[in-house]
């Protein structure tokens, strides 16, 4: 999942960013509403977490401008303003949820996952392809009934491949999905990560699922 965080309190933004990075999410942080507005109008991200008291363009103004331009990025307001009028205003302007500070990271994560499932119409929390299974809530991966331990980036890559099973994905697509929009396209980290994932997903088993499409990219499929 790719997240934009708009928060001018460095302590809070660092705390949130650290939590999501540990889970393997991509997070782009802004400390003012104006820069976040131009970014969200030009980049495709899964969700935005927006504070209200922001410099240059406050959170309410940011939400209003995004919705006026038909930007449909799901938005969670994260604010110390806990009056009912503020909550109503945020939701009426187009926010999808409103969480007040102080907050528990686990609740923020739960709300983000709920919005992501709803927006993407995900009714099941388990991705299944052939004998490979991935639980997006517990992050448990099994193949042929055997549990497989994956590192964060390996898990993110496998989830991306499973969500695009049967479709060829290029190295650039993988880079943007797992490392973010500004990662060096000349790097070989995708090849290295694919190799690591194959050692865990394919090498110990008869059924191979990760295939190279030479000169193009990779595909998860049965032979």
Mean pLDDT: 89
Given as residue ranges, the uncertain stretches (5+ residues, pLDDT < 50) are none
Task: Give me the oligomer status.
Answer: single chain
Strand order of the largest sheet: 2-1-3-4-5
Distance between the termini: 29 Å
Number of strands: 12
Key traits:
single chain; 223 residues; alpha/beta; five-stranded parallel β-sheet; four-stranded antiparallel β-sheet; 8 helices; 12 strands; 41% helix; 21% strand; elongated
How would you characterize this protein structure?
- The protein is an alpha/beta fold and about 220 residues long.
- About 40% of the residues lie in helices and about 20% in strands.
- The protein has eight helices and twelve strands.
- A hairpin with a 2-residue loop joins β6 and β7 (about 130-135).
- The two termini are about 30 Å apart.
- The mean pLDDT is about 90.
Draw up the topology in text.
Layout (H helix, E strand, L loop, with lengths): L1 E5 L3 H13 L3 E5 L2 H10 L4 E4 L8 H10 L6 E5 L4 H10 L3 E4 L4 H15 L6 E4 L2 E4 L5 E3 L2 E3 L3 H12 L5 E2 H8 L10 H13 L8 E4 L3 E4 L3
Parallel strand pairs: 1-2, 1-3, 3-4, 4-5
Antiparallel strand pairs: 6-7, 7-8, 8-9, 10-12, 11-12
Helix pairs in contact: 2-3, 6-8
């Amino acid at each position: 999942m790719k997240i934009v965080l708009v928060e001018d309190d460095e302590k809070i933004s660092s705390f949130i960013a650290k939590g999501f990075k540990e889970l393997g999410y991509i997070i782009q942080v802004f400390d003012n509403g104006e820069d976040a507005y131009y970014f969200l109008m030009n980049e495709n991200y899964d969700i935005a977490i927006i504070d209200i008291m922001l410099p240059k363009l406050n959170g309410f103004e940011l939400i209003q401008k995004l919705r006026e331009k038909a930007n449909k990025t799901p938005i969670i307001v994260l604010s110390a303003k806990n009056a009912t009028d503020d909550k109503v205003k945020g939701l009426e302007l187009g926010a999808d949820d409103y969480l007040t500070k102080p907050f528990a990271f686990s609740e923020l994560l739960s709300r983000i996952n709920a919005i992501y499932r709803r927006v993407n119409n995900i009714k099941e929390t388990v991705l299944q392809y052939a004998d490979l299974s991935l639980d997006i809530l517990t992050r448990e991966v099994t193949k042929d009934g055997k549990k497989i331990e994956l590192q964060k980036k390996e898990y993110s890559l496998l989830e991306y491949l499973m969500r695009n099973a049967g479709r060829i994905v290029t190295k650039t697509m993988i880079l943007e999905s797992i490392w973010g929009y500004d990662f060096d396209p000349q790097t070989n980290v995708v090849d290295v990560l694919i190799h690591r994932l194959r050692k865990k997903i394919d090498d110990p088993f008869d059924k191979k699922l990760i295939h190279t499409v030479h000169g193009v990219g990779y595909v998860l499929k049965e032979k």
